[in-house]
């Protein structure tokens, strides 16, 4: 295939037959859409002076709404009747306070926004390291998804299909079929430390859509993550930094490694968003191999500030 991406695969493969007040939310959407060129990145932050006393459930909802609205609203990305796959990090049997998995309120809010934008079906799933039913339940994500009208999916090993990545390191690899078939896939990582890659962010989050011998990716993780990102051709990525895991990732377990940051960011440029996430952990994005490598491959920019992110401060 000359263009081995997820969207090209859908067209050619034989395997398939993609808390704000209402007035404030609408104003943000109208403002973003009024721009000649829609913004490529948005950052919603909770007022730092009030963060210590914030209700983090309400904050997570409001921050997620604000970040998506500042990009032009979910209607920019979702068409009526679409099937959406939301891919959080649900890799670990950890409660939300330990910041090993994506914040459940961020995930639930995204499900609701997709449904409100006209999505027919919103599926949420991951390929966890810990037993899936435990991770889905104790992360709080299963409950949040169901409350918002989405569908949690436990990945079936038989439904991973070899797909042509045509990458620099991976020629093909098993991808979960329902992910490849979705009209839109939204990677929704939490910002956290990782022992191998230093950061676990949005591109790293794609390891939850692949099958096969995932440990073999450790031979050349940087190239593998760039290859799968190119195939997935991300249109929208949302990053959870309501809480961040600063050490002993990816699974954590020690509350002392968790910091409350009160941030949700969203972008059409997954590399820029990963660069921003790396900076939140105190890293120079150019020194994070898979992020810098993806930028060199032309998958996005390391200079997230060059996108002139729309910023919104909430209280």
What is the fold's blueprint, element by element?
Layout: H1 6-12, H2 22-34, E1 41-46, H3 56-70, E2 83-88, H4 104-116, E3 121-124, H5 132-138, H6 141-147, E4 151-152, E5 160-164, E6 172-176, H7 177-181, E7 184-188, E8 190-194, E9 198-200, H8 221-232, E10 236-245, E11 258-267, H9 270-280, H10 289-296, E12 310-314
Task: Characterise this structure.
The protein has 315 residues and is of the alpha/beta class. The protein has helices spanning 6-12, 22-34, 56-70, 104-116, 132-138, 141-147, 177-181, 221-232, 270-280, 289-296, and strands spanning 41-46, 83-88, 121-124, 151-152, 160-164, 172-176, 184-188, 190-194, 198-200, 236-245, 258-267, 310-314. Strands 1, 2, 3, 4, 7, 8, 9, 10, 11 and 12 form a ten-stranded mixed sheet that branches. It has a two-stranded antiparallel sheet with strand order 5-6. The longest helix is centred in the N-terminal third of the chain and has 15 residues, at 56-70. Mean pLDDT is 92; it is low at 12-18.
CATH level 4 superfamily: LarA, N-terminal domain
Structural domains: how many: 1
Number of strands: 12
Question: Biggest β-sheet: count, sense, barrel?
Answer: 10 strands, mixed
Number of helices: 10
* Rg calculated over all Cα atoms: 18 Å
The top-level CATH class is Alpha Beta
β content, as a range?
Answer: 15-25%
Alpha-carbon distance between the two ends: 49 Å
Low-confidence stretches: 12-18
Helix percent band? 25-40%
List SSEs in N-to-C order. Answer: HHEHEHEHHEEEHEEEHEEHHE
**CATH T-level fold name:** Rossmann fold
């Amino acid at each position: 295939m000359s263009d081995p991406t997820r969207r090209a695969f859908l067209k050619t493969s034989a395997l398939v037959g993609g808390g704000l007040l209402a007035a404030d939310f609408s104003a943000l959407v109208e403002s973003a859409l009024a721009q000649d060129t829609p913004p490529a990145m948005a950052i919603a932050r909770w007022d730092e002076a009030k963060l210590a006393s914030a209700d983090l459930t309400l904050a997570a909802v409001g921050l997620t709404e604000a970040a998506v609205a500042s990009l032009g609203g979910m209607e920019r990305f979702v068409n009526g009747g679409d099937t959406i796959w939301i891919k959080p990090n649900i890799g670990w049997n950890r409660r939300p306070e330990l910041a090993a998995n994506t914040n459940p309120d961020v995930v639930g809010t995204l499900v609701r926004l997709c449904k409100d934008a006209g999505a027919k079906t919103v599926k949420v799933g991951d390929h966890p390291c810990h037993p899936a039913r435990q991770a889905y339940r104790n992360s709080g994500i299963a409950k949040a998804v169901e409350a918002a009208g989405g569908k949690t999916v436990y990945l079936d090993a038989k439904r991973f299909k070899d797909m042509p990545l045509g990458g620099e390191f991976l020629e093909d690899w098993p991808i979960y079929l329902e992910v490849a078939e979705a009209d839109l896939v939204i990677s929704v990582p939490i910002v956290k430390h990782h022992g191998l890659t230093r950061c676990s962010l949005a591109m790293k989050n794609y390891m939850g859509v692949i099958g096969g011998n995932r440990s073999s990716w450790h031979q050349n993780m940087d190239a593998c993550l760039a290859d799968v990102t190119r195939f997935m051709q991300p249109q929208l990525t949302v990053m959870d930094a309501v809480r961040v895991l600063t050490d002993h990732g990816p699974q954590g377990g020690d509350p002392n490694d968790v910091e409350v940051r009160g941030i949700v960011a969203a972008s059409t440029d997954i590399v820029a968003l990963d660069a921003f996430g790396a900076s939140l952990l105190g890293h120079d994005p150019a020194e994070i191999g898979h992020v810098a490598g993806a930028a060199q491959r032309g998958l996005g920019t390391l200079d997230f500030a060059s996108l002139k992110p729309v910023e919104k401060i909430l209280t």
